[in-house]
TrEMBL record:
Main location: cytoplasm
Gene source species: Sporosarcina jeotgali
Enzyme Commission designation: 2.1.1.228
Matching HAMAP family: TrmD
Primary role: Specifically methylates guanosine-37 in various tRNAs.
PANTHER family: TRNA (GUANINE-N(1)-)-METHYLTRANSFERASE (PTHR46417:SF1)
Leader sequence residues: none
Domain (tRNA methyltransferase TRMD/TRM10-type): residue spans on this chain: 1-225
Name assigned to this protein: tRNA (guanine-N(1)-)-methyltransferase
Key word Repeat present: no
Stated family: Belongs to the RNA methyltransferase TrmD family.
The organism's taxonomic lineage, starting at the top: Bacteria, Bacillati, Bacillota, Bacilli, Bacillales
Length: 244
Protein backbone atom coordinates (compact mmCIF):
# COMPACT_ATOMS: atom_id res chain seq x y z
CA UNK A 1 0.00 0.00 0.00
CA UNK A 2 1.15 3.53 -0.79
CA UNK A 3 0.05 6.31 1.55
CA UNK A 4 0.60 9.95 0.60
CA UNK A 5 0.07 12.68 3.17
CA UNK A 6 -0.46 16.32 2.21
CA UNK A 7 0.22 18.72 5.06
CA UNK A 8 1.53 22.20 5.78
CA UNK A 9 3.47 20.71 8.70
CA UNK A 10 5.16 17.54 7.41
CA UNK A 11 7.57 17.50 10.35
CA UNK A 12 4.69 16.42 12.61
CA UNK A 13 4.81 12.95 11.04
CA UNK A 14 8.48 12.19 11.62
CA UNK A 15 8.16 10.38 14.94
CA UNK A 16 4.84 8.68 14.23
CA UNK A 17 5.76 7.10 10.90
CA UNK A 18 9.18 5.86 12.01
CA UNK A 19 8.41 4.04 15.26
CA UNK A 20 6.54 0.97 16.45
CA UNK A 21 4.13 -0.82 14.10
CA UNK A 22 4.31 1.78 11.32
CA UNK A 23 8.09 1.47 11.20
CA UNK A 24 7.84 -2.33 11.11
CA UNK A 25 5.24 -2.17 8.33
CA UNK A 26 7.63 -0.14 6.16
CA UNK A 27 10.53 -2.48 6.88
CA UNK A 28 8.34 -5.42 5.82
CA UNK A 29 7.39 -3.62 2.59
CA UNK A 30 3.72 -3.68 3.55
CA UNK A 31 3.40 0.08 3.16
CA UNK A 32 5.31 3.10 1.94
CA UNK A 33 4.74 6.67 3.09
CA UNK A 34 5.37 10.04 1.49
CA UNK A 35 4.72 13.31 3.29
CA UNK A 36 4.40 16.41 1.13
CA UNK A 37 4.13 20.08 2.01
CA UNK A 38 1.39 21.15 -0.36
CA UNK A 39 2.53 24.75 -0.02
CA UNK A 40 5.11 23.79 -2.66
CA UNK A 41 2.29 23.36 -5.18
CA UNK A 42 0.89 26.85 -4.83
CA UNK A 43 1.05 28.85 -8.04
CA UNK A 44 1.43 32.06 -6.07
CA UNK A 45 4.98 33.48 -5.92
CA UNK A 46 4.68 33.72 -2.14
CA UNK A 47 3.41 30.10 -1.95
CA UNK A 48 0.17 31.29 -0.43
CA UNK A 49 -2.35 28.50 0.12
CA UNK A 50 -5.26 30.36 1.68
CA UNK A 51 -7.38 33.43 1.05
CA UNK A 52 -10.36 35.33 2.43
CA UNK A 53 -13.78 33.76 1.82
CA UNK A 54 -16.03 35.20 -0.87
CA UNK A 55 -18.99 36.90 0.76
CA UNK A 56 -17.02 37.81 3.85
CA UNK A 57 -16.71 36.08 7.17
CA UNK A 58 -14.09 35.18 9.74
CA UNK A 59 -11.03 33.07 9.06
CA UNK A 60 -9.19 31.95 5.95
CA UNK A 61 -10.09 29.29 3.40
CA UNK A 62 -7.71 26.83 1.73
CA UNK A 63 -7.42 27.52 -1.99
CA UNK A 64 -8.21 24.72 -4.45
CA UNK A 65 -5.18 25.02 -6.73
CA UNK A 66 -2.39 23.86 -4.34
CA UNK A 67 -4.32 20.74 -3.33
CA UNK A 68 -5.44 19.79 -6.84
CA UNK A 69 -1.85 20.19 -8.01
CA UNK A 70 -0.42 18.23 -5.08
CA UNK A 71 -2.83 15.30 -5.45
CA UNK A 72 -2.10 15.12 -9.17
CA UNK A 73 1.66 15.06 -8.48
CA UNK A 74 1.66 12.39 -5.76
CA UNK A 75 -0.67 10.08 -7.69
CA UNK A 76 1.01 10.39 -11.08
CA UNK A 77 1.51 6.95 -12.59
CA UNK A 78 -0.93 5.21 -10.26
CA UNK A 79 -2.60 2.27 -12.00
CA UNK A 80 -5.73 2.44 -9.86
CA UNK A 81 -7.41 5.72 -8.89
CA UNK A 82 -6.52 6.52 -5.27
CA UNK A 83 -8.86 7.14 -2.38
CA UNK A 84 -8.39 10.82 -1.55
CA UNK A 85 -9.35 11.38 2.07
CA UNK A 86 -10.17 14.79 3.48
CA UNK A 87 -9.81 15.07 7.25
CA UNK A 88 -12.80 17.15 8.30
CA UNK A 89 -15.06 17.44 11.39
CA UNK A 90 -18.04 17.41 9.02
CA UNK A 91 -17.01 14.05 7.59
CA UNK A 92 -18.25 10.51 8.09
CA UNK A 93 -17.43 9.12 11.54
CA UNK A 94 -14.42 6.83 11.22
CA UNK A 95 -15.05 3.23 12.33
CA UNK A 96 -13.26 -0.12 12.34
CA UNK A 97 -15.38 -1.12 9.35
CA UNK A 98 -14.04 1.89 7.45
CA UNK A 99 -10.48 0.95 8.44
CA UNK A 100 -11.01 -2.54 7.00
CA UNK A 101 -12.43 -1.04 3.81
CA UNK A 102 -9.45 1.30 3.35
CA UNK A 103 -6.98 -1.50 4.13
CA UNK A 104 -8.00 -3.19 0.88
CA UNK A 105 -6.90 -0.20 -1.23
CA UNK A 106 -3.57 0.23 -3.03
CA UNK A 107 -3.22 4.01 -2.77
CA UNK A 108 -4.48 6.40 -0.12
CA UNK A 109 -4.01 10.16 -0.06
CA UNK A 110 -4.70 12.10 3.16
CA UNK A 111 -5.35 15.84 3.00
CA UNK A 112 -4.66 17.63 6.30
CA UNK A 113 -6.08 21.13 6.24
CA UNK A 114 -6.00 24.14 8.53
CA UNK A 115 -7.68 27.53 8.74
CA UNK A 116 -11.43 28.06 8.60
CA UNK A 117 -12.11 25.41 5.99
CA UNK A 118 -11.68 24.26 2.41
CA UNK A 119 -12.82 25.71 -0.86
CA UNK A 120 -15.95 23.67 -1.60
CA UNK A 121 -14.59 22.59 -5.00
CA UNK A 122 -12.04 20.46 -3.14
CA UNK A 123 -14.88 18.51 -1.53
CA UNK A 124 -16.93 18.25 -4.68
CA UNK A 125 -14.32 17.43 -7.30
CA UNK A 126 -11.13 16.15 -5.63
CA UNK A 127 -11.79 13.99 -2.60
CA UNK A 128 -13.49 10.60 -2.45
CA UNK A 129 -13.97 10.44 1.32
CA UNK A 130 -14.45 12.95 4.13
CA UNK A 131 -13.60 11.45 7.54
CA UNK A 132 -13.86 12.61 11.13
CA UNK A 133 -12.55 10.88 14.27
CA UNK A 134 -15.17 12.45 16.53
CA UNK A 135 -17.49 15.32 17.24
CA UNK A 136 -14.81 17.83 18.15
CA UNK A 137 -12.54 20.24 16.29
CA UNK A 138 -8.74 19.96 16.03
CA UNK A 139 -6.31 22.65 14.90
CA UNK A 140 -5.57 20.66 11.75
CA UNK A 141 -6.02 17.27 10.16
CA UNK A 142 -2.59 15.87 11.04
CA UNK A 143 -3.43 14.16 14.34
CA UNK A 144 -6.65 12.70 12.97
CA UNK A 145 -4.88 11.33 9.90
CA UNK A 146 -2.19 9.74 12.08
CA UNK A 147 -4.86 7.88 14.03
CA UNK A 148 -6.57 6.63 10.88
CA UNK A 149 -3.29 5.61 9.22
CA UNK A 150 -2.28 3.59 12.27
CA UNK A 151 -5.70 1.91 12.35
CA UNK A 152 -5.50 0.98 8.65
CA UNK A 153 -1.86 -0.13 8.43
CA UNK A 154 -2.09 -2.57 11.34
CA UNK A 155 -4.69 -4.48 9.31
CA UNK A 156 -2.34 -5.11 6.38
CA UNK A 157 -1.09 -8.70 5.98
CA UNK A 158 2.14 -9.40 7.84
CA UNK A 159 2.15 -6.19 9.89
CA UNK A 160 1.06 -7.66 13.22
CA UNK A 161 2.96 -10.65 14.59
CA UNK A 162 -0.27 -12.63 15.00
CA UNK A 163 -2.80 -12.24 12.21
CA UNK A 164 -5.58 -13.14 14.63
CA UNK A 165 -4.84 -10.05 16.72
CA UNK A 166 -6.64 -7.61 14.44
CA UNK A 167 -9.58 -9.99 13.97
CA UNK A 168 -10.14 -10.20 17.73
CA UNK A 169 -9.83 -6.46 18.36
CA UNK A 170 -12.71 -4.51 19.81
CA UNK A 171 -15.17 -3.45 17.07
CA UNK A 172 -13.79 -5.94 14.50
CA UNK A 173 -16.52 -8.39 15.45
CA UNK A 174 -19.00 -5.65 16.26
CA UNK A 175 -18.48 -6.26 20.00
CA UNK A 176 -16.00 -4.97 22.54
CA UNK A 177 -13.13 -7.35 23.26
CA UNK A 178 -13.17 -9.67 26.28
CA UNK A 179 -10.83 -9.12 29.28
CA UNK A 180 -7.24 -10.41 29.14
CA UNK A 181 -5.05 -11.86 31.92
CA UNK A 182 -1.45 -13.05 32.16
CA UNK A 183 0.98 -14.34 34.79
CA UNK A 184 1.03 -14.41 37.77
CA UNK A 185 -2.22 -16.26 38.40
CA UNK A 186 -2.64 -14.39 41.69
CA UNK A 187 -1.40 -10.84 42.34
CA UNK A 188 -2.05 -8.90 45.56
CA UNK A 189 -4.88 -11.30 46.30
CA UNK A 190 -6.55 -10.81 42.92
CA UNK A 191 -6.87 -14.02 40.93
CA UNK A 192 -7.27 -14.91 37.28
CA UNK A 193 -10.68 -16.52 36.54
CA UNK A 194 -10.46 -20.28 37.04
CA UNK A 195 -11.83 -21.05 33.58
CA UNK A 196 -8.75 -19.50 31.93
CA UNK A 197 -6.50 -21.88 33.87
CA UNK A 198 -8.63 -24.94 33.16
CA UNK A 199 -7.20 -25.86 29.75
CA UNK A 200 -10.75 -26.43 28.49
CA UNK A 201 -10.72 -24.36 25.31
CA UNK A 202 -14.42 -24.83 24.66
CA UNK A 203 -15.28 -23.33 28.04
CA UNK A 204 -12.67 -20.61 27.59
CA UNK A 205 -14.21 -19.58 24.25
CA UNK A 206 -17.65 -19.56 25.84
CA UNK A 207 -16.41 -17.42 28.75
CA UNK A 208 -14.72 -14.96 26.40
CA UNK A 209 -17.84 -14.57 24.30
CA UNK A 210 -19.98 -14.01 27.38
CA UNK A 211 -17.53 -11.42 28.72
CA UNK A 212 -17.43 -9.68 25.36
CA UNK A 213 -21.21 -9.44 25.34
CA UNK A 214 -21.25 -8.29 28.97
CA UNK A 215 -18.68 -5.56 28.35
CA UNK A 216 -20.53 -4.35 25.24
CA UNK A 217 -23.85 -4.31 27.08
CA UNK A 218 -22.38 -2.31 29.95
CA UNK A 219 -20.19 0.12 28.00
CA UNK A 220 -21.52 0.39 24.44
CA UNK A 221 -25.05 -1.03 24.27
CA UNK A 222 -25.62 0.93 21.06
CA UNK A 223 -23.33 -1.53 19.25
CA UNK A 224 -25.71 -4.40 19.93
CA UNK A 225 -28.32 -2.79 17.69
CA UNK A 226 -25.94 -2.87 14.71
CA UNK A 227 -24.92 -6.53 14.59
CA UNK A 228 -26.55 -9.90 14.02
CA UNK A 229 -26.08 -12.28 16.94
CA UNK A 230 -25.89 -16.04 16.68
CA UNK A 231 -28.56 -18.01 18.56
CA UNK A 232 -25.97 -18.81 21.25
CA UNK A 233 -24.97 -15.16 21.60
CA UNK A 234 -28.59 -14.09 21.73
CA UNK A 235 -29.25 -16.58 24.53
CA UNK A 236 -26.21 -15.32 26.46
CA UNK A 237 -27.30 -11.71 26.02
CA UNK A 238 -30.82 -12.36 27.26
CA UNK A 239 -29.38 -14.06 30.34
CA UNK A 240 -27.05 -11.13 31.00
CA UNK A 241 -29.90 -8.65 30.69
CA UNK A 242 -32.09 -10.64 33.09
CA UNK A 243 -29.29 -10.74 35.64
CA UNK A 244 -28.60 -6.99 35.59
Amino acid sequence: MNISILSLFPEMFEGVLHTSILKKAQENKAVSFSVTDFRNYSENKHHKVDDYPYGGGAGMVLKPEPLFNAVEAVTEGAVKPPRVILMCPQGERFTQAKAEELASEENLVFICGHYEGYDERIREHLVTDELSIGDFVLTGGEIASMAIIDSVVRLLPGVLGNNASSVEDSFSTGLLEHPHYTRPATYKGFSVPDVLLSGNHGEIDKWRMEQSLRRTLERRPDLLDKISLTPEQDKMLKKLKSNR
